[in-house]
Write a structure and sequence with these properties.
Layout: H1 12-52, H2 59-79, H3 86-101
Length: about 100
């Protein structure tokens, strides 16, 4: 059942989609920045580790930590809009409103 009391303005749906697209592109940009930063940090710490102490590869802990951060960011980016996106939000709002009318 659609909300017939206050229907959305004709341009509101397009504006909402554009805002969602901009948010996605912004998140994608942040993910790419994270990848670049991780590559630089891994290269620097690996070089420092190689020069200072070749016996123990402590920089692998840095790699492990950054890999976890990249994995969570990538999962968040891939699932954005699918699990808890705007469609889910709308469905939950409708469920809440329907429950209030009964």
């Amino acid at each position: 059942m659609e909300n017939q009391i206050n229907p959305p303005a004709p341009g509101a749906i397009g504006d909402a989609r554009e805002a969602e697209a901009r948010a996605y592109v912004h998140s994608l940009r942040q993910f790419y920045r994270l990848l670049l930063t991780a590559a630089v940090v891994i290269a620097l710490t690996g070089t420092i580790n190689y020069i200072s102490s070749r016996g123990y590869w402590w920089f692998l802990w840095v790699v492990f930590g950054l890999a976890i951060a990249i994995a969570f960011s990538g999962i968040n980016l891939l699932l954005r809009g699918r699990v808890f996106g705007s469609a889910w939000e709308e469905r939950k709002v409708r469920e809440y409103l329907d429950r209030g009318q009964q």
